């Protein structure tokens, strides 16, 4: 048990970085910001898995050792507990005066009357009555066995919690996806639908529970100081039979208030803006696109990103790679300018503006390598295959013109929400074990284990006097206070028996 307690302390200590540091599975953007802001220290923490605490090797090793230790101490304790429950209370000691609690008196009542009072007073106690030489009668009684029951329930609940936690990691999964809040839909049809997906060890992503979510709008309310007060997404969803009937059910999705459907939990994790750009090419063709940009300042929602365009009507691959466009830079919901440097005063889109660089050339989208939607491939810039051809600050409705006649206009802004889908088939088991742990802990802390012995000795003499010596001894099996008062009341009742009562 000492080993288990040490490991439990280490487990709690190991969980602290998960509460103090951003975790990649919950907020990849915040994690990336932290690593970038702390340089070599952030990179060292990343290599040591401090941003993925609960899936790290060292955290897993601690709870596996804790589980082994718990099993090793619970099995023998359970066997001993069963033996103790089946056994009888111990014999009455010969010298009760040596007990921590002791009282002795002679009463005006018979042995049977004293024993009748004792039986009534010790109702609910595990007790056994014995007869000794000379007509002496004894009672051994014990109470508080549920304390040990609570102790075992607590530790078995902890063991179950670890097991169900491991099962959840084996058969659960989590995925994140960005959805525009303009009626766009997301369906849980496979891993390809997610921006990032973390399957359990036994999940291959081919048999996900089907459901669809449509994000109709997003509302954010802020206090006067810019502090967020309400984040709310009005969504509709389909699951189960609704997918066959085409029925959409409304739901108001809030932070920490997930949508639960078909064994999935859908969380609202974040939000942001997608600037809308329209590119008009020299031949008159028009392309409009809204791509989500990543917030770099959560207080003002100043965002950065890259909106990328392929040239229309160009079939030659080599030519197309020289005419791709990317609109990169900063977006400010409530723009303020310090000279020509754009910043944002508040997170609401009161005066949206962008500070953009127009990049033209090869975006590297055909290289076969994955590419972030939030930025351009810097290697293309370094090699000279992607060049900046314009830089400008644009307010809503303004446009700039490139040398070849191409126009880039800032047309507006859309909201997007960042959703997380979590599937954990073991969450009910985790809840049951957590409740069992609390109940067991309460029982082990509140219930006192104590024993009491009663020796009733008849006094020789006139039978009509019926005098009896009553001796009571008590022992608390725990260090908790309170048994002294209970023993005083109990012994007072037993030593105050009178003839005929």
UniProtKB/TrEMBL annotation:
Keywords: Cytochrome c-type biogenesis, Membrane, Transmembrane, Transmembrane helix. It is a multi-pass membrane protein. The keyword DNA-binding does not apply. The chain crosses the membrane at residues 57-76, 152-172, 429-447. Its main location: membrane. The keyword Membrane applies. InterPro entries: Cyt_c_bgen_Ccs1/CcsB/ResB, ResB-like_domain. Residues 1-487 form the ResB-like domain. GO terms for biological process: cytochrome complex assembly. It is found in: Membrane. One of its GO terms (cellular component) is membrane. This is Cytochrome c biogenesis protein ResB. It comes from Amycolatopsis suaedae.
